[in-house]
Design goal:
The structure is a single chain. By secondary structure, the protein is of the alpha+beta class. The chain has two domains: 140 residues, Sandwich (Jelly Rolls); 73 residues, Arc Repressor Mutant, subunit A. Helices cover 44% and strands 24% of the residues. The strands form two sheets. Strands 1, 2, 3, 4 and 5 form a five-stranded antiparallel beta sheet that branches. Strands 6-8-7 form a three-stranded antiparallel beta sheet. Helix 3 packs across helix 4, helix 5 packs across helix 8 and helix 6 crosses helix 7.
Length: 220
């Protein structure tokens, strides 16, 4: 008889149903928000399968500027960590816990064995890599070809709504999300505030003229 915990695990990671392993032996790791889960240049002996919470994966330049590569959500793994494990190379990014995390940590050698012998694990791995590669390519395209002011407006509209006009993020956090410098974001937000499109306060951005922001996107 499969218990509810195992059912939930199978719903998140269906390939585990094809693996002859006692899921009770895979003890979840719990990490609190704000913890650095993995560091750039570090060595990892295990691959995470995220059950609960959220992890953001960042790349930091020598200048100290950061860019958000992607987020890991329940039902996903870290593709950079997967590729590092499979290629026996150091982890080339930093992973920070955003929301309290529960994850199953699968030893590298065990995951490699699964990948060689279990088609469902192959499908999960290759699909995950393809989807994440597509997302990173889209990010590169945005950074390279789209104006930062337009990307900022998109970001503000996507993260607020008619009923929720407040965005609780610092200028630094927005800059990391958009892959640019904090000074650039601060300047653009100040200009938008001067145009009465939004109001700024510490750690908070309030959209005051949503329709005008939408108009700017339509007329860009």
């Amino acid at each position: 008889m499969i218990d509810q915990k195992t059912k939930n695990l199978f719903n998140l990671f269906p390939f585990l149903q094809d693996i002859q392993i006692q899921t009770d032996d895979l003890v979840p790791v719990k990490l609190s928000a704000g913890v650095c889960a993995f560091t750039d240049g570090g060595e990892s002996t295990s691959i995470p399968l995220l059950i609960k919470g959220s992890i953001k994966v960042l790349k930091t330049a020598e200048s100290g500027r950061e860019i958000l590569l992607y987020r890991i959500k329940p039902g996903e793994s870290c593709i950079i960590m997967l590729s590092s494990a499979l290629g026996n190379i150091s982890y080339p990014a930093t992973a920070i816990v955003e929301q309290d995390v529960e994850a199953l940590m699968i030893p590298n050698e065990l995951y490699k064995y699964w990948l060689q012998h279990i088609p469902a694990v192959q499908t999960f791995t290759y699909q995950s890599m393809a989807q994440r590669l597509g997302a990173v390519m889209a990010l590169i395209e945005e950074i390279t070809f789209k104006r930062i002011d337009i990307r900022l407006i998109h970001f503000l509209l996507e993260h607020t709504s008619e009923s929720q006009s407040l965005l609780y993020k610092t200028h630094e956090e927005v800059a990391i999300e958009l892959g640019t410098a904090r000074e650039v974001i601060s300047r653009l937000l100040k200009n938008m505030e001067g145009d009465h499109l939004l109001m700024l306060s510490r750690g908070k951005i309030e959209i005051t003229n949503r329709q005008e922001l939408k108009k700017i996107l339509l007329n860009r």
